Amino acid sequence: MFAVLKTGGKQYKVQAGDILRVEKLAADAGEKVQFNDVLMLGGDAPVVGAPFVAGAGVQAEVIEQIKGDKVIKFVKRRRKHSSKRTVGHRQKLTLVKITDILASGADKSGIKAATGSAPAGEAAPAAKPAKKAEAKAEAPATAAADDLTKLNGVGPAAAKKLVEAGIESFAALAALSDEQIAAIETVKVKPEWVEQAKELAKG
After folding, report:
1. How far apart are CA 66 and CA 6, in angstroms?
2. Are residues 9 and 31 in the same domain?
């Protein structure tokens, strides 16, 4: 009996006793995991899922956490101010041994589901929008929006980006601190804009 399972965005045809390298799983060596995304069961009576086979599962034992072969990425720009960069990468993988294939009752087996492990730095970019939203919330708002294109050097595109960052008036722009200006990613706020905004906000 064999099964076709899905994990880490890839599909694998496995049977009991197979050694498999899959995308890194959140499990330690010696721990048992269960793959619940089974696309097909083969044998005397094949079963094809839609898309998964209900109640089916593939159990495996984690052998060790490993790394794949090194992949070299080389970039070179052939121009007057040429540059080149070499970056190496080794994909994190998990080596598992398939121990059993369940045609039914996988949800009651009591073995934890095999889930991927996110890279350590993957959650970091989520902090940037929060910082941007914080700067947007701290910027003082006025009842009426001003025409920001009256500032020298601010065109319609820059004015739109300022509004997206929560700056809709001269007073809001004039009240920005250096930290808030640095947190704005949609547009680079120039010091002369702030000075002009202070004068225009006075009326």
Report:
1. 20
2. yes
Using CB atoms within 10 A of its CB, is residue 73 exposed (0-12), middle (13-18) or buried (19+)?
exposed
Report whether pLDDT(184) > 90: no
Rounded-to-5 percentages of helix, strand, coil across the chain:
25, 35, 40
Structural domain count, the chain: 2
Beta-sheet strands, E only, within 36-107: 38-42, 47-48, 57-77, 83-102
Torsion sign (Cα): 181, 182, 186, 191? positive
pLDDT > 50? residue 140: no
User: DSSP string of 141-186?
Assistant: --SS---GGGSTT--HHHHHHHHHTT--SHHHHHT--HHHHHH--S
What's the residue count for the chain? 203
Nearest to 115 by CA among 3, 33, 19: 33
The mean per-residue pLDDT over the stretch 22-38 comes to: 93
> Within this chain, do residues 100 and 145 fall inside the same structural domain, yes or no?
no
Percent of the chain with pLDDT over 70: 85
- pLDDT at res. 40: 94
